[in-house]
Design brief:
The structure is a homodimer. By secondary structure, chain A is of the alpha/beta class. Chain A has helices at residues 2-10, 26-39, 44-52, 63-87, 93-102, 104-136, 144-160, 163-193, 214-225, 233-236, 245-273, 284-293, 297-330, 348-364, 373-398, 403-427, 429-432, 434-460, 485-496, 511-524, 541-557, 583-594; strands spanning 473-480, 501-506, 529-532, 560-570, 598-605. In chain A, strands 3-2-1-4-5 form a five-stranded parallel beta sheet, with helices on both faces. The longest helix of chain A is centred in the middle third of the chain and has 34 residues, at 297-330. Chain A starts with a helix and ends with a strand. The interface between A and B is large, with 73 and 74 residues.
């Protein structure tokens, strides 16, 4: 039944050789990998204005130079990530670049930071999209958390079905959003050109403003840079592209960069020219749309596609997280289950883990995840800085033909990203200090997991470990609880193995029981030696373990192997298990974990 | 560490032959088995007045004839339970009596009803005692639930230490309470005799009262009868008495009956004579004490011991529940773990279960368990009625010498108890209807558990089941995941067993991997046959199960036994387990539950 449900939810299993059909063309890849970056347009410009308004409305003209600064950063990032894509065509992005060029720990910082960031992406963007919906339909407001969780589950299921299917479904809303914003910007510019908007609404560029400071401008710039989160996703997900994957990925990245630049600058410009002030009741984009179209169909179309893209921004996390996890798992820094492909050829463990963790975040913050946005922005700029610096070092070390312009691009990128990171720490320390605690913890966890895997590999390799001790003979111990059919079956099995010695062990709690059982046994199965261990404290494990110790010590002297045969009831119905004392489980666990003996379980299937 | 903690909390384990020292003398037995019944004096008289006040204060004189009715019922119960004790000296009370004389289902109704009742006893009495404490110290009020839970845990631990130890500690408060109430009644009677209390305070007996009805009087009588809950406890706990157990138990019961009768009639009389009206702020006993002594030391002494005995009334449940459970477990109506003696020779599973369930009740009702009192009273009168009727039938059937007076006693008891039960259903149906749902469910559960145990017994008994199939030879299947030390060890073991056939099974996900592994294997271990099962859907379980099916079908034809040898990593630290894919657990579970093959686990203890 569970299997059938799984089939309905995620579809039939796919064969490993169907992997090729699961690759993405550029149109679909752009849709699912850029939704995070493009959705930032919905809140990035607003973030700049929210900082400037703390001075006065007259300071709003600064949004134009700040917007230009963000665009420069965007260009630097796109150019340098193009270089990363060609240099590391197997994906892994910032993690691989930092690890290869800067060393293990910078790599782990970049990787850990991005892993956490994708979880934050999912939680933050789904919560934001849900907020947009519940603002439109206030009756749903009390169910915000529930709705957000349902969205995460839906996106998780969609991704478990495989990347092609999710891309086919999710492409429409993304392109509709792009279309909607282009229409808005076009109509807005037309209004301005045709004189429909008076220039009086905004302070002219260059107006002197009281109280403005470099600190404040930097802070506004850092806030605006949060629109660039998600730019790195494509570099993590190169293996999802059709061949030639790096070339396709690089082109997709360029297109995404151009779209993002146009939408971002258009929105910033219109907001400035219309003289829009951020208010609680309506977002900046919604105000622009209302001033341009009034409350017409277009207004609601823009609002609807914005809500959708906010939710779908989560999907970028679902594309990038599992592939980053595969890279970390292959390098043995996280459990190896993250490198296993699921039924639909996606890395389902990563997808499920991402879904579960972001649901937990949503529940923990009761759907109010806005306070996580700065944390999430700084979590992107740390790996940005590390990967750019890594690329710098790479060019300086390798000096390939034409390396100087490449070095300049990456150096510029590294410098701007480092600055943004510093600005974040300077201006928003109260919101981002937790990263200073959990990043080291994550890196420590990576390190310890890696140490364990290395140690295991060392112990298993035939070349490095001691040769196996030969087994000269076998001693079988058979704990018995009575004279029943189950015991008969196990004893027959023990005899069939041709062991050198079979010892049945009976553990009576009362002295009287001891003699009685010995007599019965000698009549029933005289060919198997019986040992009784009187247990005055009514424990079965203790005397049995002590006895096995003694037998094992003697056996080891002559390289004999000790095997304990334990019969186990398998009841027909699950609930029947609580009616049996599960002694066989307890004995088995105690033996396997504490002793070096082999445990054989003889199932006895109850028919009723 | 856990073992050390257990030692501190409940003491060193006791040997089975120390059981004799764990038996109770009459003084201690009276203390722990009568606390429930005696504590009823603290609320029984009040319950009568609470019903009468719905008419008028003039009706209070009816408390005297109603009190006499309760006393008659008490005498009938004591006399007939004495007869039960001698007739069924191994304990079990109402359950055993009803089962033996009325049949299985009446027995189960009595037993189930009492099991639930003891859980209610613990929850209700601990909550009541906690209420008394938090009324005295209002700052503790918000912690009521927490305090009640801590009391349950303390009483549970005390009982896990063993019945002697708990009795030694709990005897003092019980006797102090009895002493306190005797002083109160004595002083009250002296006051009345010396004319310190004017007779004007109460309406004389026989005053006609408007609006009084038989229904109301019956209801008052039923409420007063709740003071008799706990009378049956001694008959369940006979095995806890020193030899001669039945005689000692009967004497204890008589003494308890006399004490209860004196305290109950004294309280009812004083309440009537003082003209006390039940109010929310102070209990009836507290009002009597205040009128008698004023707010002196004696007043607080009475209040303190009353709070204590309310909490300790729970202990009666702890003495009776586990022993009733043993009887039910021995008859195979509840899981057999309830018949196993713990480290301290008490039936610890029953004790722990009682503690856990009553804590759950307290949490579910947030410490406000008063509404459970009627449920709890009716839950006692059902088994009372059943056991009395059972005894009636017994005398009629067996007709031992002097059976007529015995029959009269039990018939009177049965008749009164049946009446009380009816009155409960008539007058408090809204509070007690749940019993009509959960009693049938409990009896159904008993029935299904019993059916399962009977079926298992049938299948295990050598005389009834088919003779075991002889094992003519062995086939060993060895799933391998690579060429490692672990595989080498398992293969060596398989060879040492002298099986007729050993088949190594490798499950590659990719075609290329298949040929490569086959080549490596044939070089490494040419004497063991390798089968590769290409798994295009990347499942290990499915192809393996299919293969084992095929092998097993062939093996069965010639009575060969199939054994699957599974290597299992045992990491040094618990958390390491999440770093390994637990394939061995999955395979083992799938095999044991779905197939008739034997599974051998070869542990490989990781050293780092």
């Amino acid at each position: 039944m569970l299997v059938a449900l799984k089939r309905i939810l995620i579809g039939r299993p796919l064969k490993s050789n169907e992997l090729g059909e699961q690759k993405l063309n550029k149109t679909k890849a752009l849709a699912i990998l850029s939704s995070d970056a493009l959705s930032s347009v919905a809140y990035g410009p607003e973030q700049i204005l929210l900082v400037l308004i703390t001075i006065s409305i007259a300071a709003f003209w600064y949004s134009i130079p700040i917007g230009i600064g963000v665009l420069i950063l965007l260009v630097a990032l796109i150019l340098s990530y193009r270089q990363i894509i060609f240099a590391y065509p197997h994906g892994g992005g910032a993690y691989v670049v930092s690890k290869e060029n800067l060393g293990k720990y910078p790599g782990l910082v970049a990787g850990g930071s991005l892993l956490v960031d994708y979880i934050l992406t999912v939680a933050v963007s789904v919560s934001a999209g849900t907020d947009a919906i519940t603002s439109a339909f206030p009756t749903l407001h009390e169910h915000t958390v529930g709705i957000a969780v349902v969205f995460v589950i839906l996106i998780t299921l969609l991704n478990l079905r495989g990347v092609t299917e999710s891309a086919s479904i999710l492409a429409y809303p993304v392109y509709l959003f792009v279309l909607a914003l282009f229409i808005l910007i076009g109509a807005g510019l037309y209004n301005i050109a045709s004189g429909g908007v008076s220039a009086a609404q905004h302070a002219p560029i260059g107006t002197p403003v009281m109280g403005i400071s470099l600190f404040l401008l930097l802070r506004a710039f850092a806030s605006g840079s949060s629109a660039l989160t998600g730019v790195e996703a494509i570099s993590n997900a190169i293996p999802n592209f059709r061949d030639p994957a790096p070339k396709n990925a690089a082109r997709t990245l360029t297109v995404m960069g151009i779209l993002l630049a146009l939408l971002f600058s258009g929105t910033v410009f219109l907001a400035y020219y219309y003289g829009i002030t951020p208010i609680v009741e309506a977002t900046v984009v919604s105000q622009i749309a209302e001033q341009t179209f009034g409350r017409t169909f277009m207004y609601f179309f823009i609002q609807g596609t914005t809500a959708l893209i906010l939710i779908l921004a989560a999907n970028t996390g679902y594309s990038a997280f599992p592939l980053l996890a595969v890279n970390l798992a292959k390098d043995k820094f996280i459990p190896r289950m993250f490198a296993v492909r699921g039924d639909r050829l996606g890395y389902s463990n990563g997808i499920i883990m991402l879904g579960v963790l972001s649901i937990l975040l949503i529940l923990a913050f009761k759907g109010q995840t806005e306070q996580l946005i700065p944390l999430y922005a700084v979590g992107v700029f740390i790996p940005f800085t590390l990967s750019q610096s890594g690329m710098m070092l790479k060019w300086i070390r390798q000096k390939p033909p034409g390396w100087v312009p490449k070095l300049i691009i990456n150096t510029t990128g590294a410098f701007i990203c480092l600055t943004v990171t510093f600005v974040f720490f300077l201006t928003k320390f109260t919101q981002i200090w937790p990263i200073l605690i959990f990043l080291p913890l994550i890196v420590l966890a990576f390190h310890r997991i890696n140490k364990h895997y290395e140690a295991v590999g060392e112990q298993l390799r035939l070349t490095t470990c001691e040769p196996a001790v030969p087994i000269e003979g076998n001693v079988i111990i058979l704990p018995v609880a009575g004279i029943t059919h189950v015991v008969e079956h196990s004893a027959n099995y023990a005899k069939s193995l041709g062991a050198d010695q079979i010892i049945a062990v009976y553990i009576p709690f009362e002295r009287e029981d001891e003699a009685k059982f010995e007599e019965k046994w000698s009549k029933w199965m005289p060919d198997v030696r019986l040992v009784t261990l009187h247990s005055p404290y009514r424990s079965i494990i203790q005397p049995l373990m002590k006895f096995i110790d003694t037998v094992e010590r003697k056996a080891r002297e002559s390289n004999y192997q000790v095997t304990v045969i334990i019969p186990q009831f398998i009841p027909k119905k699950g609930w029947h298990n609580i009616l049996h004392n599960q002694t066989s489980f307890t004995i088995r666990a105690a033996l396997l974990y504490r002793k070096d003996v082999i445990v054989t379980t003889v199932p006895y299937h109850l028919k009723k």
